[in-house]
Amino acid sequence: QNDDCRTLSLSAHVGFDSLPDQLIKKSIKQGFCFNILCIGETGIGKSALINSLFNSSFEDPPSTHFLPSVQLKPQTYELQESNVLLKLTIVNTLGFGDQMNKRDSYQPIVDYIDAQFEAYLQEELRIIRSLFSYHDTRIHVCLYFISPTGRSLKTLDLLTMRSLHSKVNIIPIIGKADSISKTELQEFKSKIVSELVSNGIQTYQFPTDDETVSEINTIMNGHLPFAVVGSTEKVNIGNQMVRARQYPWGIVKVENESHCDTVKLRKMLCTNMEDLREKTHAQHYELYRRCRLEEMGFRDIGPETKPVSLQEAYEAKRHKFYLDLQRKEEEIKQGFVQRVKEKAGMLKEAEQKVQTKFECLVLMHQEEELKLEEKKKVLEDEIAEFIEKKATAELLQSQTPVSTPVDLKRQGLQKVSAYA
Amino acid sequence: GSSLEPEECSMEPPAVPEEEVPVTVAPGPVGCQLFGYVGIEAVLDQMKIKTMKTGFEFNIMVVGQSGLGKSTMVNTLFKSKVSRKSSQPGQEERIPKTVQLQSITHVIEEKGVKMKLTVTDTPGFGDQINNENCWDPIIKYINEQYERYLREEILITRKRKIPDTRVHGCVYFVPPTGHWLRPLDLEFMRRLSKIVNVVPVIAKADTLTLEERAEFKQRVRTDPQGTPGVPHVSPAQLKSCIPQIQEDLKTHAISVYPQEDFDQDPEDRALNDRIREKIPFAVVGADQEHQVNGKRVLGRKTKWGIIEVENPAHCEFPLLRDLLIRRSHLQDLKDITHNVHYESYRVRRLNESNRP
């Protein structure tokens, strides 16, 4: 094969410059998919912000503070703008920061993110798979809501972000930012950034390598974390219904960039959607996949430092499993044989016992028989004696005529008959 | 994708926002209306920028006997000397004893779009006395590329962008000899259409007169099914191979590109049906320019006139070019290669080791 790659100039229009358009047309047909995870305490304005960001009103009833543990609730919406169809999934964390003991608050979130990666990995590892039509549920961006305390990040924030920053793109935002004054806001933002850096937490930075967007992205990176205000209500200002929050002292307009950064966040999310998706797939997912496969025991390099393919690893595992199976089978067989032996021994013993008992009985029987014989003999002797005695008695009787009562009776009868 | 109702984005706030609220607990997609411009369509621009930056890869293979004008055809398609012959001038052209596969890669750019084009030539195909199994090296090559991609894909630490050397389209040159496909053609196309997109073309179609072509087009329109075995009416129709070829392909269940099974929607189907009617394209290749009516055109000069390659009345080369490059088919070729052919190779391969 000839591997050198030369650049060639075309003499006329060939027509493959339509390729990007072909690709886009296909993507439009397929539709886009974007998954946002919102982490923040109850009541910090997550739903309001999502509604403001996408200029919609997603139905989401307010949740209670009394959930025993953090629950994640995904909801999918289909939005259409001109010819772009977006399947948007918002995952809300319910009960975050509500428990007395917040030690395990972030674990359900980590588990959820991992579960989405796992589902994708399982699909990818399948033999007959359809990645083409797979509904991607992996989280593309995580909006982390920071409480507008004006001071610093909470321990819960640091812990949670630290456990998530290698799994998902985190964009930290300050929720309900209308409760902080402008001067405090700037200080708060810098404090947050320095705390994140000192704790080694990597948040998402908008890409600056492409000239068309690098300038604006660099500026936006400087505004992070965004201070957002969301509102589900609209206020009538000068004959227009504008999304805003009305206070007795004034109106905070959500779409006004000098009031808050909500519009900036929306712009950045939309213009960097593709980059967020790509980072999720090429970086976070690959990392998860690598760890998971290594966990399962697969290796890229075999024992002789020869590249081992996943397939061979499958094969080796299957072989090992088969051997294990065989070994277990042997064990069970041995165990069975052992038990049979034991039982046979037991039976033999029992048989022995029965035998001895039988012999014993026979002996007893014989003894009894002997005894009976003796008794019989004794009895026979007695009978013989008695017969002798009887014979002598009869002999004596026949010799002496003694008026027996029977004779007297006869005499009596005769007398009676004589008188009659 | 579940059923969706396309809703228009309106700039003024609607009277009643219509939303479908799912009744069940399971979260299903809810159609929502946007009250104002959000800017989601910016994602299209990003896609464009990204693809322009990464560029495209396209790998094409040309198969056919020597002398059918394959190299010329590829040069004509890409308007430059991309074929092996042109890139390595001075090499003596000897018909090799066995089928060889030679690839050559070029990077071409047009209006900011970069394409890495690899053309794989197959000299020696069909040239031997005994051509049995001459498709084996080709099948082996195609499967090797799938294997390469598969190995990259199942690595634990894998590249961000896996280099794609898989053959996206195989152009098969049928000589304009008979009215039926030869056994070699049938065998080859039957085997290959299972693992790669095959586009059959009738080479050197300048040997077919206009009447003959008109006749078979007529025949196709009035009797598209055709009946095999029906004797031809006139000797002129001896050269009318297209409907017979279509019939042949149908009889042998050979599915060439664009495959009917992969039509995605009625619009696609209508477009592809029109293409399928004309397949195989009768093409003429030429890489020399001539002067016709004051214009410079690509064509072949003969004693009886100049055959203009780009003239649809002269030959169907523009149709082939549209199919392979323009419109939506280049991306389509790559998608079918990736989603269908590569996946079935992968299934075969992973199942292979299952058997003890």
Automatic annotation (TrEMBL), chain A:
UniProt keywords, alphabetically: Coiled coil, GTP-binding, Nucleotide-binding
Pfam family, one: Septin
Gene3D superfamilies for this protein: P-loop containing nucleotide triphosphate hydrolases
InterPro entries: G_SEPTIN_dom, P-loop_NTPase, Septin
Listed SUPFAM superfamilies: P-loop containing nucleoside triphosphate hydrolases
GO molecular function, one term: GTP binding
Domain Septin-type G: 30-295
Any coiled-coil regions, as ranges: 362-396
Domain of life: Eukaryota
Family: Belongs to the TRAFAC class TrmE-Era-EngA-EngB-Septin-like GTPase superfamily. Septin GTPase family.
Protein's recorded name: SEP10 protein
Organism whose genome encodes this protein: Tachuris rubrigastra
Name of the coding gene: Sept10
UniProtKB/TrEMBL annotation, chain B:
Septin-type G domain segment(s): 54-352
Coiled coil: none
Compartments (UniProt record): Chromosome, Centromere, Kinetochore; Cleavage furrow; Midbody
Listed SUPFAM superfamilies: P-loop containing nucleoside triphosphate hydrolases (SSF52540)
Annotated GO MF terms: GTP binding
Keyword Glycoprotein appears in the UniProt entry: no
Superkingdom per UniProt: Eukaryota
Matching InterPro entries: G_SEPTIN_dom, P-loop_NTPase, Septin
Pfam families to which the protein is assigned, alphabetical: Septin (PF00735)
Keyword annotations from UniProtKB, A to Z: Cell cycle, Cell division, Centromere, Coiled coil, GTP-binding, Kinetochore, Nucleotide-binding
CC per GO annotation: cleavage furrow; cytoskeleton; kinetochore; midbody
Keyword Cell cycle among UniProt keywords: yes
GO biological process: cell division
PANTHER family found in the cross-reference section: SEPTIN
Family per similarity comment: Belongs to the TRAFAC class TrmE-Era-EngA-EngB-Septin-like GTPase superfamily. Septin GTPase family.
This protein's name: Septin-7
UniProt organism field: Tachuris rubrigastra
Recorded name of the encoding gene: Sept12
